User: Fold this.
Amino acid sequence: MRILSGIQPTGDIHIGNYLGALRQWISLQDKNECIFFVADLHSLTVPYDPKTLQKSIIEKIISYVAAGLDPEKSAIFVQSQIKEHTELCWLLNTVCPVGELERMTQYKEKAKKFKNNINAGLLDYPVLMAADILLYKADAVPVGKDQTQHVELARTLARKFNQKFGKTFIEPADVLPKMGAKIMSLIDPKKKMSKTDAPQSYISLFEEPESIQKKIMSATTDSGKNIKYDLVKKAGITNLLTIYSLLENKPIKEIEKKFKNKGYSEFKKSLIKVVIDFLKPFRKKQKELATREVYIKEILSRGKNKAQSIAQTTIQEVKEKMGLI
Ligand code: ADP
Ligand code: TRP
Assistant:
């Protein structure tokens, strides 16, 4: 199968991104043809600083490799370096009903959050994402839960295009982890953990131990004192239990049992240790990669070459089908 996914270069990659998306990428790369990129064009749709964007993009590439992506197995590149993404986006725009875009949950949320910057790119964001996926004729797209609506649009556009111009695209499937597809914010367990929210709400993949400790100790919990999985009544503890279970690779039931008759504080202290231990090798690898500029450039150049040859072939086919050539 051909697998494709991306993450925007805004903010630090956090354990939500890891458990929802990156971890799946890493396990899929052994048996599939994998293509992963940094979605820099998507990140232009919300306010950002052009002076720090390049640094942020390179940091994401380093994060991918530090977390376990293997450049020998996966093609890794930067979206804006392959111009066919924007070209296909325009072509797909002409088959995409505006109504489909206006009903997108992420668009509605971002339009509310960035009231003074509701630019056309924010509305068109899912069409660019569909272009990213369809350009490579990907079979499957590993993402967290918040992105499934966008992958669904990619399927819709593939279908519409195929009906109008003849079979061209594959309808891509989304791939979600059984658990961890939506890790919640540490300060508001009703909201998803997000890179663009306050730093206390997330734990970065490369967070220092002292900071991990502070963030977990002050994470919002619920009334009562039992360590029990209950999405409705105990959203905070349930989120922490989920993180514990995924990082320790132990079933929730076992962790509940371990902390039976013990308080939140003891549970949190144990979770702090689990998180610090889990992230330790990531920090080490990140520090090492940060000094290897030439190696990172090489990875990107190889990834770009591979991506470009697929992208050019698809665009040629699409333009022919649409009567442009
Ligand atoms: P963010 O919303 O934190 O800025 P992105 O939108 O760049 O993150 O998402 C990158 C990937 O991580 C996507 O596949 C997305 O679905 C996944 N993801 C983002 N937040 C979470 C979360 N809280 N839990 C699980 N997966 C997530
Ligand atoms: N929109 C995705 C996010 O915010 C990032 C992304 C851009 C993506 N293009 C993609 C993910 C294509 C999967 C496939 O997380």
